[in-house]
Structure prediction request, 71 residues.
Amino acid sequence: MARERKSDEIIICEVSNCDNESTRSLSRKKVDKELNHSLTGSGSKVKICKEHYKEFKKATKKEKKLDSLGW
Ligand SMILES: [Zn+2]
Prediction:
């Protein structure tokens, strides 16, 4: 993986095996906890694409629902 990154280059989603353009930057800890995907890159933030962001939102929502059900 020797992909060069210029400042105006598209940044790819940091979920491994995902090649979509990232649209969001989220806390790595949170994404790690909510999504069952391994993440590439390092640092406290992880860049994720629209699709994975949706998945992340869904996961956090589900957790809230479970909480209210007394899990
Ligand atoms: Zn992705």
Notes: Residues 22-68 form one domain.
